[in-house]
Amino acid sequence: MNRIKQLRNERNLTLVELGEQLNLPKGTLSRYEHGTREPKEPMWQALANFFNVTVPYLQGIDDKTVIKKFSSEDLLQELLDRKVLEPVKDKPINLDDVFLLHK
């Protein structure tokens, strides 16, 4: 079974909200989630990109490895949010303007 519903629920999205993001009717997404309709390859990729996972993970084929793709900006923001990094002064966030906290 695919992981579309699981990932949607983890992100607290309704079928309508996810459908708006992907330009799909909620009924189509519901059928994808329940396995009564199979997405075509471009839609698998669009869903995987949206959820930031690989297509095999989303399809339920790869249970052991989840490779999430992060942009450097997303990773940097995550580190700032977790207070692993602190911005230097009040500059916009970029890789040159952060440093590791020493605890």
Question: What is this structure, in a nutshell?
Answer:
The protein contains six helices and two strands, in the order H-H-H-H-H-H-E-E. With 103 residues, the protein is mainly α.
Describe the structure.
The protein has six helices and two strands. With 103 residues, the chain is mainly alpha-helical. It has two domains: 4-59, 434 Repressor (Amino-terminal Domain) (Orthogonal Bundle), CATH 1.10.260.40; 70-103, no CATH class. A two-stranded antiparallel sheet has the order 1-2. Helix 2 (15-22) crosses helix 3 (26-34). The longest helix has 11 residues, at 41-51. 13% of the residues are buried.
Question: Structural class, from secondary structure content?
Answer: mainly alpha
> Which term fits the overall shape?
elongated
CATH superfamily of the largest domain: lambda repressor-like DNA-binding domains
Instruction: Predict the CATH topology of the largest domain.
Output: 434 Repressor (Amino-terminal Domain)
Order of helices and strands: HHHHHHEE
Strand line-up across the major sheet: 1-2
Tally of discrete structural domains: 2
Mean pLDDT: 81
Specify the biggest β-sheet. 2 strands, antiparallel
User: Could you tell me the strand content as a percent range?
Assistant: 5-15%
Task: Tell me the CATH architecture of the largest domain.
Answer: Orthogonal Bundle
* Total DSSP E strands: 2
Helix content: 40-55%
Low-pLDDT runs = none
Instruction: Give Rg in angstroms.
Output: 17 Å
Which CATH class of the largest domain?
Answer: Mainly Alpha
N-end to C-end Cα span: 44 Å
Query: Treating each run of at least 4 consecutive H or I residues as one helix, how many helices?
Result: 6
